[in-house]
């Protein structure tokens, strides 16, 4: 569908800000909820909201498609649980967002190793560039020593990459709404089960935490997903991919404003290296897609 006066780009620009804001919705909600329990409540609630709209499409899913959706939901749950635990350790959400964004480069590496999908040549330029940025962001003591929160963000980045690869490999034939609903439900059920067995819950949850939970569900998950779907419908894939790279940029800006994160020279250089690496790979990847489409049209 054609882009209507740049409406798709405007919507996705707003979505990238919402994605960054989601980090802070979650951070503020943790004052009243255990981390994994919060993720469970957030995603299970989001799945319940989507369910009435997705139900008619569930009837058309095969057993194999349901199993694929559930399996990718399992990896998604591990990723989200690791991410939320990382958030609980410090206020450097900006650095965490850039460390997590490295998953965009780990994904093609995993896809190549597991499914033999060879990455583009610029990948071998982008990956070392990103790793230099990771070292600058995560190396906290001047020697090769990563802090606990940095290690958790990198672990979350790995699980995010695995989820993306499996999602892309096994879920291409499944409609987006039932797929998303099933994955959200899996995350909710698994994380809530884990939390009820292992985490301690407060006897009285502050109303502010409940408010942030509701904000995370309605705005950070459901509303954001709806807007992203609409934005991608009216936006060229090249523009959409570049715009969504803004999420860690907004996150680090908000982290400085809201949480007082310190922007050192080393942190700025590290973030710039990671962003440059993502742009190098993303632009080359999109050029390859565009060439392929042009060949098909001719």
TrEMBL record:
InterPro entries named among the record's database cross-references: Diverse_Substrate_Transporter (IPR051258), EamA_dom (IPR000620), EmrE-like (IPR037185)
Compartmental location: Cell membrane
Membrane-spanning segments: 12-30, 36-55, 67-89, 95-115, 122-138, 150-166, 178-197, 209-227, 239-259, 265-283
Record membrane topology: Multi-pass membrane protein
Keyword Cytoplasm attached: no
GO cellular component: plasma membrane
Domain of life: Bacteria
Protein name: RhaT protein
Organism: Gallibacterium salpingitidis
């Amino acid at each position: 569908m054609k882009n209507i006066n740049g409406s798709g780009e405007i919507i996705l620009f707003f979505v990238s800000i919402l994605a960054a804001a989601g980090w802070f919705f979650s951070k503020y909600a943790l004052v009243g909820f255990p981390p994994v329990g919060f993720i469970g409540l957030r995603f299970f609630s989001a799945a319940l909201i989507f369910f009435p709209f997705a139900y008619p499409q569930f009837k058309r899913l095969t057993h194999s498609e349901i199993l694929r959706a559930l399996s990718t939901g399992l990896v998604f749950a591990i990723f989200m649980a690791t991410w939320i635990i990382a958030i609980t350790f410090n206020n450097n959400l900006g650095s965490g967002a850039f460390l997590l964004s490295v998953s965009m480069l780990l994904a093609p590496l995993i896809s190549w190793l597991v499914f033999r999908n060879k990455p583009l040549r610029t990948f071998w330029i982008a990956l070392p560039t990103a790793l230099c940025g990771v070292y600058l962001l995560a190396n906290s003591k001047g020697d090769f020593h990563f802090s606990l929160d940095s290690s958790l963000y990198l672990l979350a980045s790995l699980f995010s990459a695995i989820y993306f690869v499996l999602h892309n490999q096994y879920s291409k034939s499944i409609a987006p709404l039932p797929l998303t609903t099933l994955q959200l439900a899996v995350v909710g059920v698994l994380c809530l089960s884990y939390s009820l067995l292992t985490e301690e819950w407060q006897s009285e949850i502050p109303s502010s935490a409940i408010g942030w939970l509701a904000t995370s569900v309605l705005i950070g998950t459901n509303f954001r997903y709806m807007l992203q779907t609409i934005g991608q419908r009216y936006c060229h894939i090249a523009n959409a991919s570049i715009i969504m790279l803004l999420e860690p940029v907004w996150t680090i800006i908000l982290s400085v404003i809201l949480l007082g994160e310190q922007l050192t020279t080393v942190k700025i250089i590290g973030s710039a290296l990671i962003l440059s690496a993502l742009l190098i790979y993303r632009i080359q990847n999109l050029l390859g897609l565009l060439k392929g489409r042009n060949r098909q049209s001719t």
